[in-house]
Amino acid sequence: MSKILIAFYSRNGSTEALAKAVAEGAQAAGAEVRLRRARELVSEEVMKAAPGWLENARRMNAAYEAPTTADAEWADGIILGTPTRFGSVTSELKAWIDGLGGLWAKGALNGKAGSAFSSTSTAHGGNEATILGLYPPLAHLGLVIVPPGYADPVMYAAGTPYGATSISGQNATPPTDADLAAARFQGRRVAEVAAVLAPLRG
Question: Which residue numbers delimit the Flavodoxin-like domain (predicted)?
Answer without folding.
Answer: 4-190
